[in-house]
Design brief:
It contains twelve helices and twelve strands. The protein has 339 residues and is α/β, with parallel strands linked by helices. The protein is globular, with a radius of gyration of 24 Å.
């Protein structure tokens, strides 16, 4: 009998904060031991689902009560919820086009590092023999990065959802993740525009034509970023509509990707991110490789005690993260002056 079929799953396998079951299971039942077998490609948690014959997706998915057939199967339920929420976050996550680095920490306090180079610092100058090599200073920021807890509370009782199919329940959980991802984007936008508490708000430029956005304004935004590149534009609905209606975007070559796939790429080659909840009247331009750091405290966190004991009502699902500026000049804001 394989190792995974003999494991006793219990609450103690979750780390403080309600996450980490898969990591614990992987230590007890490493996936590398299944190479060349029919279970290759499954992680330790997925092997436990197979062990208890729990199908979480597809037309033949089981009902919620299948998790509670044994105490070990019930201990899998919080991890299932956390994974479904995380999947929803990933499907709606655009931070990959904004964030240069993701830093995982234990705890709530984090102080980022900073470097404020001038043009001469950025140039790889010739150093004559015996001459002093130019220096670039790297220091810690004065203020801690603010982390925010985002989440939702599950209000359905076990009796109300026990017969609900897991594929539909998963969709409900993924929606929670999608909303967390939406708020993470707004947190990132706020830090880019206003800074992370260390006097590093983005430089703001105004449009040329009395509040009317034009292609030349986008060129201006592109021109102020060097030596950084304009890789990403973030804009609210009104400004996205304006950009998509520009003559340059309607050109059959410049707008080919959008016409063919719906993927929004500007004529400047930057990725255009639509942020409906962003305040109208401004556009952010940045270099995704240098502008922003995302700080994450743990992973999707569930109240595993309540969930395992079928106390679904008022059980919370949370996620803690924050953002820090890396190079302040790697982002800029274009403002419509009349708004």
């Amino acid at each position: 009998m394989a190792i995974y079929e003999n494991l006793t799953i219990e609450k103690g396998m979750y780390k403080p904060g309600g996450y980490g079951l898969t990591e614990t299971l992987e230590k007890l039942d490493p996936s590398e031991n299944y190479k060349g077998t029919s279970l290759e490609g499954l992680d330790a948690f997925q092997r436990q689902l197979k062990r208890f014959d729990i199908k979480v997706s597809g037309p033949g998915s089981d009902s919620v009560e299948k998790f509670f057939q044994t105490s070990s199967a019930a201990a899998l339920f919080p991890e299932y919820i956390g994974r479904a929420v995380h999947q929803g976050m990933t499907q709606r996550d655009v931070l990959g086009d904004i964030v240069a680095a993701r830093t995982h920490i234990e705890g709530m306090d984090y102080r980022s590092i900073a470097s404020v180079p001038n043009d001469s610092d950025l140039e790889a100058q010739i150093v004559n023999e015996g001459a002093v090599i130019p220096e670039t200073s790297i220091t810690t920021q004065s203020n801690l990065i603010s982390l925010k807890k985002r989440g939702r509370m599950l209000l359905g009782s076990y009796e109300a959802i026990r017969f609900q199919r897991l594929d539909i329940f998963t969709i409900m959980l993924k929606q929670i993740g999608a909303y967390i991802a939406k708020m993470n984007l707004l947190d990132a936008i706020n830090v880019i525009v206003n800074g992370d508490g260390n006097s590093n708000a983005a430089a703001t430029y105004t449009v040329d034509e009395n509040g009317t956005l034009s292609y030349s304004d986008l060129v201006k935004l592109w021109s102020v970023l060097p030596p950084y590149r304009l890789t990403t534009l973030i804009a609210p609905t009104a400004q996205v509509k304006t950009m998509l209606n520009m003559t340059e975007m309607k050109d059959s070559f410049a707008g080919h990707d959008f016409h063919a796939t719906g993927e929004m790429i500007t004529p400047l080659g930057a990725k255009l991110i639509h942020a409906p909840s962003m305040t109208a009247g401004s556009i952010i331009g940045l270099d995704k490789d240098y502008a922003l750091e995302m700080v994450i405290a743990g992973d999707v966190c569930t109240e595993y005690d309540k969930l395992i004991d079928r106390q679904l009502e008022r059980a919370t699902v949370t996620y803690i993260s924050g953002f820090a500026k890396i190079f302040n000049d790697a982002s800029a804001v274009l403002s419509l002056s009349t708004q």
